[in-house]
């Protein structure tokens, strides 16, 4: 029903920047909360940032100063701009979509895009 496709990942040196994009398609996506999560090797998946249909954002404290999330409701896309990247940011980044009243257990996920921060 809902499909999410991430893009923009890759290899970047510490201190560099990347912009991740997610294209969403499906029914009534305009009301969904869209967001980005990441999973580093050996670690659990964690929140990076989310954004509601009204533009309210929630960004993880550990990346708030380096991350910006935005969405285009007309195009059903959500972007994650990351700067001052650190090796600790290396992870697979996943796009997520869920209804405001639903939990992550009943949400939709993209296939993930790899971000590697290394010199």
Describe the structure.
This protein has no helices and eleven strands. It is mainly beta. The radius of gyration is 13 Å and the shape is globular. The model has no long low-confidence stretch (mean pLDDT 94).
Q: Which descriptor suits the 3D outline? A: globular
Largest sheet: 7 strands, mixed
Number of strands: 11
> What structural class is derived from the secondary structure elements?
mainly beta
Mean pLDDT: 94
Our Rg estimate from Cα atoms comes to: 13 Å
What is the N-to-C order of secondary-structure elements (H for helix, E for strand)?
A: EEEEEEEEEEE
> With helices defined by DSSP (H or I, 4 residues minimum), what is the helix count?
0
**Strand residue content:** over 45%
Instruction: Classify the helix fraction into a percent range.
Output: under 10%
Distance between the termini: 40 Å
pLDDT < 50 stretches: none
Question: In terms of topology, how is this protein built?
Answer:
Blueprint: E1 3-7, E2 10-12, E3 18-25, E4 33-39, E5 46-51, E6 57-59, E7 67-72, E8 77-82, E9 91-98, E10 108-109, E11 113-117
Parallel strand pairs: 2-11
Antiparallel strand pairs: 1-3, 3-8, 4-5, 4-9, 5-6, 7-8, 9-10, 9-11
């Amino acid at each position: 029903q809902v499909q999410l496709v991430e893009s923009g990942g890759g290899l970047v040196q510490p201190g560099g920047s990347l912009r991740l994009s997610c294209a969403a398609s499906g029914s009534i996506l305009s009301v969904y909360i869209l967001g980005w999560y990441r999973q580093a090797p050996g670690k659990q998946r964690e929140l990076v940032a989310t954004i509601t249909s009204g533009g309210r954002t929630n960004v993880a404290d550990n990346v708030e100063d380096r991350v910006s999330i935005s969405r285009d409701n007309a195009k059903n896309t959500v972007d994650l701009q990351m700067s001052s990247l650190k090796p600790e940011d290396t992870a697979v980044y996943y796009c997520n979509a869920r209804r405001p009243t639903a939990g992550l257990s009943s949400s939709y996920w993209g296939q993930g895009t790899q971000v590697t921060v290394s010199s």
